[in-house]
Recover the amino acids of this structure.
DNA sequence: AATATAAATAGTAATTGTTACTGATTTGAT
DNA sequence: ATCAAATCAGTAACAATTACTATTTATATT
């Protein structure tokens, strides 16, 4: 739709890689994925561009999972499931992101703060990890 | 109640410091707080004991916030509010931790996984940070 | 109480993910 | 084609955390 964004070739490739996977990759993963196709790519460039995307509102951080920051180009708010064993991150449909009306106001009063957003994360074991549990 | 736990003096002090604050401290904060009272305390000891508490089920991680892991000794599941500017973490009453019955089952089906827990986090600006916004 | 055994610690070094810097390259506008 | 601004590679710096080792402290046994 809006594919011409005046991105440099590398920036475009990084965005393309990020947005066409659902694994919520780390910078390292994006770098590994691209470096065969773009031999002259630097890991620093991946980090820098992921920051750029965050500032532009084209990507967000899922948080630091097992020591690495994980990213998502899907900007529609939705929960995630994180496997406590393999750290796989899966999307949960946005329909499950609902916090009951009235909660925002109540939490704002409880915390004396302005709430701008919320996030819901489910934790447990993915299928393949639970099959190999003790 | 269960104050005699056969903890070493330092382990006890670290647990006491962690459990008697509601700021959800980092290892560094616990260390700074204790080092006047326990001049021979090592930062590594704080890290190690926080890990021990996690393994023992006496503490849990709130996640890595602004580059530092933050801890909580309150084990009853409850949401948190995190200020996006000062990274203050506040407790939200556990009554707001409710995920509608049926959601766990649905998410398990959607993700092909076993859900063990969930976490809800609210983000925004705390009072003092919103007063100094541009 | 003395001694053996295990656990915990200080202090330091090593590791890891990430960020900052610098000089070279690429890009976009003229 | 030219030039200023943006982007980049490569490396160094950084910060949080973990690992390691020698020493100390606690616990158990006699």
């Amino acid at each position: 739709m809006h594919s011409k964004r005046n991105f440099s070739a590398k920036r475009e490739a990084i965005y393309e890689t990020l947005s066409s996977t659902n694994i919520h990759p780390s910078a390292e993963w994006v770098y590994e994925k691209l470096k065969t196709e773009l031999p002259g790519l630097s890991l620093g460039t991946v980090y820098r561009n992921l920051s750029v995307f965050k500032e532009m509102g084209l990507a967000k951080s899922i948080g630091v999972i097992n020591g690495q920051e994980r990213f998502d180009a899907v900007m529609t708010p939705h929960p995630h499931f994180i496997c406590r064993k393999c750290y796989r991150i899966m999307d949960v449909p946005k329909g499950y992101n609902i916090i009951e009306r009235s909660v925002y106001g109540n939490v704002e009063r409880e915390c004396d703060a302005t709430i701008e957003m919320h996030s819901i994360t489910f934790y447990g074991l993915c299928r393949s990890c639970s099959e190999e549990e003790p």
Q: What stands out?
A: Chain B has five helices and five strands. The two ends of chain B are 48 Å apart (CA to CA). The longest strand of chain B covers residues 113-126. Residues 8, 10-11, 40-45, 48-49, 67 of chain B lie near DNA strand C (CB under 10 Å from a C1').
